[in-house]
Amino acid sequence: MKVATYNVNSINSRLPVLLRWLIETTPDVVCLQELKTPQEKFPEQALLDAGYHAIWHGQKSWNGVAILSHHDKPEEVRRGLPGDPDDTHSRYIEAMVNGIHIGCLYLPNGNPAPGPKFDYKLRWLERLTSHAAELLASRTPVVLAGDYNVIPTEQDVYKPERWLDDALFRPETREAFQTLVAQGWTDALRKIYPIETIYTFWDYFRNAYGRNAGLRIDHFLLSPELDRRLVAAGVDRDVRGWQKTSDHAPVWIELSDG
């Protein structure tokens, strides 16, 4: 089973790129972030024509997450991260697909830091950590996939000294992420590539993609039930070089049958 995550950076603007990638790689399940479209403008029919059922949580202009399935329609479990009833951002959706509990997330960027946006990011991480603990306690196979907007270590960023004051790399952010992982989650890409340079995002500016001046901020966290089923992982880096593409590349894992 192949599960992918992809920050599309506006699904309707990048739809030709998304459909081309889906057709060429045929993942079984896809988590999408940064849809940047209201609920009613989501391109459901185009995805159905490509063979994918979808559930989505849209928001005008910003945010937005979706889960696609190449098989049966995802069985929605939750939309919105618990812990703050006043949080109206469309950043989390959860579903059962082929017996696996899929959480798709788009964690806040948090810049400028310090400040209110950074405080919101840290609170969101605390809420995610609390919910993740409940998911682990369920003893079901769980994937938490998406754009975490977290650079976990210096190994995950080109020239880390330039990112010291950025919300993605501040000590508070990295410590919060490590607290989450320490619950018992496996960072899938780092399990497969423990020492390699591997990025998932390259800025549009300063020829970042051409220079491979990237970041690793799109992550898969796997519960113990899925850790032992992990057989492969990768980044479809070439997609970042396509015309009118997102600044993220699709990231994927392969799981053996349970």
TrEMBL record:
Domain Endonuclease/exonuclease/phosphatase, residue spans: 4-248
Positions of Mg(2+) binding: 7, 34, 147, 149, 247-248
GO biological process, any: DNA repair
Cofactor note: Probably binds two magnesium or manganese ions per subunit.
InterPro entries: AP_endonuc_1 (IPR004808), AP_endonuclease_F1_BS (IPR020847), AP_endonuclease_F1_CS (IPR020848), Endo/exonu/phosph_ase_sf (IPR036691), Endo/exonuclease/phosphatase (IPR005135), ExoIII-like (IPR037493)
EC number(s) on file: 3.1.11.2
Active site: residue positions: 106, 147, 248
Keywords: Hydrolase, Magnesium, Manganese, Metal-binding
Annotated site location: Transition state stabilizer: 149
Enzyme class (EC, first level): hydrolase
Cross-referenced Gene3D superfamilies: Endonuclease/exonuclease/phosphatase
Names of required cofactors: Mn(2+); Mg(2+)
Keyword Nucleus assigned: no
Annotated site location: Interaction with DNA substrate: 248
UniProt GO MF annotations: DNA binding; double-stranded DNA 3'-5' DNA exonuclease activity; endonuclease activity; metal ion binding
Residues under site feature: Important for catalytic activity: 218
Pfam family name, one: Exo_endo_phos
Family listed: Belongs to the DNA repair enzymes AP/ExoA family.
Protein name per UniProt: Exodeoxyribonuclease III
Organism: Paraflavisolibacter caeni
Encoding gene per record: xth
